[in-house]
Amino acid sequence: MINVMYKNSCPNCGGDISADRLLNGLPCETCLPYINGIDGVDIISKVKALYNILLNNDKIKNYWNLYYNITTFETVFKYFKDKTGYEPWSLQKLWLRRLVSNQSFTMSAPTGLGKTTTLMTYSVFIGQDVVYIVPTKSLMEQVCKRLEKLGAQVSCGKVDQRKVSVITISYLNKNANSITSYKPNFVAIDDADAVIKSGKTTDRLVSLLGIPNDVYESAIQLIRLRNKYYFSNEFTEEIKEKIRELELKIAEFKDKISQLVIASATIRPKGIKQKALRLLTGFEPSSIQLYARNIIDTYTDNLDLSIVKELGSGGLILVSKEYGRSRLNEIKKYVEDLGFNAKLAISGRKFLDDFSQGKVDILVGSASYYGVAVRGIDEPKRLKYVIYYGVPKIKAKLFDALSNPFTLLRVGKMIGVNFSELQNKILVLSPSETQLLKFSIIKGETINYQKLDQLRQELLYYISLVKDKLKEIGEETLISDNFVITKQNTNYYIIYPDMITYLQGSGRASRLYNGGLTLGFSIILVDDKHIFEILKKKMQKLFPNTNFTSLSNINLSEIKTKLEESRKEEGNRVHFNISTGLLIVESPTKAKTIAKMFSRPSVRVINKVPVYETIIVDGNQIYVLDVVASKGHIVDLTLEDIGYYGIKVEDSGIIKPYYDLIKKCLDCNKTFSITSDKCPYCGSTNVQTAQTTINLLRELALSVDKVFIASDPDTEGEKIAYDLASFLSPYNSNVYRITYHEITKKAILEALRNPMKINTNLVMSQIVRRIEDRWIGFTLSNLLKTKFNGHNHGAGRVQTPVLGWIVDKTMKYKSSMGYVVYIDIAGYSIKMYFSERKKMEEYINNLQVVKIEKISEEKILLSPLPPFTTDTLLIEANMKYKLPANLVMKIAQDLFEAGLITYHRTDSTHISSVGIEIAKEYLQKQGLIKDFVPRSWESSEEGAHEAIRPTRAMDVNELIQEIEENPYKYSIRFSKLHFLIYDLIFRRFMASQMSHAVGTKSRYLIKLNKDDNINTELLSNAEGGFIKVYPVKVYNLPLGEVKPKVNTGKGSSEQLLSYSDVISLMKSKGIGRPSTYAKTIENLVRHGYIVSSKRKSYLIATNRGISAYQFLSSKFYDLVSEGTTAKLMSKLDDIALSKLSASTVLLEIFSEISTLVNPLKSEQNV
């Protein structure tokens, strides 16, 4: 039996505790020896029961904090119900938990989900020292009345610290000096846009929050320093130290400022003061999230507004910006002439009050994202339809837009400017570099970083080329897939469809009402067919079910009835189930990718960890999820002096591995797992601990309905999930494991629909592998250190036989050194070895020509290779591009986390039906559907999932185009190698789904010298089928007498092993796994046992490596032999499949080590 123990992790006393106890939500045995009758009990009842038992037994310690939080939540929920008359629903409970936990954040939900009610109730709950800020006086009066109805003592229009003060932004600006000494406990902002837009208002708010001016100035200084020196040659240690000093000063004050909650915002902070406020509060105001659409999208190819007469009262007309204010007035008059009361929706709230009361039938406003008509109207009963007068557009002067390198690239390509040299430099730019280049070009300034400034100069040159080319073309309108360029008078303009404005504006007609989403109707009066087609394409990409229907095919009478029906008290609306959750992934990149995939997430930074709040809509189920990265493993086997290298093996056969929190020294960058916060390697106390992550995850888990652990789908990922579940189960009883093999919307939704339990068989397999690695590694490493009197020695079951292969080849290579002649005939190379230089020279002198005869040829069918597995990808990338395995794995990891390929650690060649459909879509698109041959490539690997393949029907050129159009879509920084590896994976996969090719196999006789005749078979031709996307090497040897190319050099009759050779051996001999191929070679390099040749990437054993292997193989052959290692790998697979007991295998290993190692340890001379 294996009993996993965590050091210092009891939620009550902080002592050692078993995983079983934590998974059951219990304190350790010392705190609570016996407990019965709480299985299946909800978390609140369990916490209360355990608290009372601990209290009665005088054992209560840290558990009091958990009990306090739970009971505080209960108290505020009850208070909410008493004040409002109903139970808070899931999302309101999330907000209330955050509020009573004193968190600052943005409420990013749409209107109708109870944001204002929640804020008001919490304000009354506090009772005093509350400031509630609203944009207008009319809204202030409404809020005051509602607060008074809830029982609050309200100060309406001025600040009174004994009450709930409701003020306008105007009051805050005018009376800033009179309230400088006042620091409220809680500040609520109903609409943050006025604060975000105005630096002056930001100054006032900073003062109100109790942030000292010197701290505020430090935050501004920090942002300026980061912006100025991030890419500068002058980024010295002195400046780094100054940045660290400012960060520390800000961090020390963060917990002392007032709690700030923002109910809504539509824009993001851009000014330096607003960014400083974000830095100080730890969160960024975010736009209202789009939970769902219930809109009928239509269009008509004219600007005829007579449709208003048929649809009647309850409409909003949004006029495209280029028509100007005068057109708004004309349209208002036209509507009034139809017999309706119309009003302009441009500023203020009077128009909205009149519309709500039925005094106005139709509102007319501007189709501007920042306009009040697009973002400021929430009338679920009154507003039924939206008419767009003209397609909503974004229009900018082209030559100003060209300051953006990506826009320059797209426009240049469109008009035929050759960007081949510049393209790769632009595609790998980070967002910060892009912004710096853009502003330097606009302002005409140089960049204090040579490489970027050189690129700035190149961009200026290409801008001039684009301008000249446009003049040369001379056309009035140029159309691309994503934008239109027009010439008006002497100026060029670039025009895009404004999809965000369309979504926000049309969304005014479909609002939440009585728990459901009303039906809305949207009509675009098309004034530009090209821009409309681009808008359609973008909408269908974001919302695949979007379908723009021609107005001529719509029964308006029927639509009108449906619109009115959905607004009745018991009308037909779309209803949702909203639940809250915490989604834990391994890497920050993956967290960002998933959060951005479903919405524009809000971000709050807690203890330097970004927490992304995103909305995931799955039919009528809506998840409001906090997405956070655990950054991999949070615990490892302890380095403390416990048992045998951190594992106790008891006489009863019980094995207790002790795990400690992982810590990282920020000075020497080494990780360790001991109780002390002092680095055991360099003595530094500048240490980062996983406890910070655990504390954050516990805090978040306590606030949500469910916890989803989405670590990688392998044994390592399962162990991470097991550890996280152990640490979080006392704080949330709904902890689930979810897995996906690709980061796509479809895969994430499928995973959320099918939550699972932790697979303990996989966990046990990982535990056995890790313990075995620790026992073998530490035992042999210590013996090596003693033997060779040095540090940085290491050994392991897999490393040692691999080192043996490399040592063997290196020694044979060195002992067979001589001279080599390379004979090249039209790309076909022949290698001849000579032990003596004289013989080589004689051979070359006699080799004037070679004679080539074609003996025979035959037609053959060439079958496509299966899609990549981990080993075949590493082999192919090394053979084609000479890339080392660890670099290929790093790039594949990036591509996986960006959502571009499936999981890259796999032994399976299987392809799912989803993958087959991707191939079909792409081949159809390329006109190659006749070559489509669907293959699932059934894998013999048990439990395997799928090969490495792309997640979309998008080749590398389309990927590059997508990055040009949306540089910030992916959360990774691309390099040229990313495109190479993606292209390799993509083409190999597509080839695997295509028909056979037809080849010609030719047999040649090559006569070098009179005694040297070589018979060889070569592929001389290949065409059709998969060759169209994945070409193979062919040789067309000239016949007759040919003068060859000859090169000579020192060499050996033995070939050194390359990365690809080693990986092939690991695979064929059964000692490699997808997670160990690259790591094994990397470890051997790190220990100084092998080096990689620069030109051909051969692996060569060093003297240090040779000595280490000879010692290990002579003393511990049975422990580290190839055969023993393969057997262990097989046993680990059997444990994962529940065919073998984990404890049995560990006891065998322990006995094996004791038998072989202990006698040697007792010897005087190792």
UniProtKB/TrEMBL annotation:
Its EC number is 5.6.2.-. It catalyses: ATP + H2O = ADP + phosphate + H(+). GO terms for biological process: DNA replication; DNA topological change. InterPro entries: DEAD/DEAH_box_helicase_dom, Helicase_ATP-bd, P-loop_NTPase, Reverse_gyrase, Topo_IA_2, Topo_IA_cen, Topo_IA_cen_sub1, Topo_IA_cen_sub3. SMART domains: DEXDc, TOP1Ac, TOP1Bc, TOPRIM. Residues 1-40 form the RG N-terminal-type domain. One of its GO terms (molecular function) is ATP-dependent activity, acting on DNA. Transmembrane segments: none annotated. Residues 759-1157 form the Topo IA-type catalytic domain. Residues 96-285 form the Helicase ATP-binding domain. Binds 1 or 2 zinc ions per subunit. It holds the Pfam family Topoisom_bac. ATP binds at Q92. It is found in: Cytoplasm. Residues 576-1166 are annotated as: Topoisomerase I. It is an enzyme of class 5 (isomerase). Residues 580-743 form the Toprim domain. Keywords: ATP-binding, Coiled coil, Cytoplasm, DNA-binding, Hydrolase, Isomerase, Magnesium, Metal-binding, Nucleotide-binding, Topoisomerase, Zinc, Zinc-finger. In the N-terminal section; belongs to the DEAD box helicase family. DDVD subfamily. Introduction of positive supercoils requires the cooperation of both domains. The helicase-like domain probably does not directly unwind DNA, but more likely acts by driving ATP-dependent conformational changes within the whole enzyme. A beta hairpin in the 'latch' region of the N-terminal domain plays a regulatory role in the enzyme, repressing topoisomerase activity in the absence of ATP and preventing the enzyme from acting as an ATP-independent relaxing enzyme; it also helps to coordinate nucleotide hydrolysis by the ATPase domain with the supercoiling activity of the topoisomerase domain. Monomer. This enzyme is the only unique feature of hyperthermophilic bacteria/archaea known and seems to be essential for adaptation to life at high temperatures. It may play a role in stabilization of DNA at high temperatures. This is Reverse gyrase.
